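Checklist before submission:
- one chain only
- standard amino acids only
- sequence pasted in full

Submission:
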Amino acid sequence: MKKLFCDICEKEIAPGSNRKTLVETEQILELAEITDICSDCLDKVERTAWYDVIRERINRISN
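Returned file contents:
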C-alpha cells in the first residue's frame, strides 16, 4: 500500500483517516495544490481567518 504524507508538515497520514471539510476549505486547499493533509494541519487550516489573509494579500499587491 502506498504511504501518504502531509503536504504541509510531511507527517505520515494513516490510511482511511479522511475527514469531511467545508467546500470553502476544499477550494483553498485545491488552489494551494495541497492534496494530502494530516488532521493536525487541517485543524489549523480550518481555524485560519481566510478573509484576513486574502485582504492582507490584496493590500500588499495594491501598494
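Reviewer check: The longest strand covers residues 4-5.
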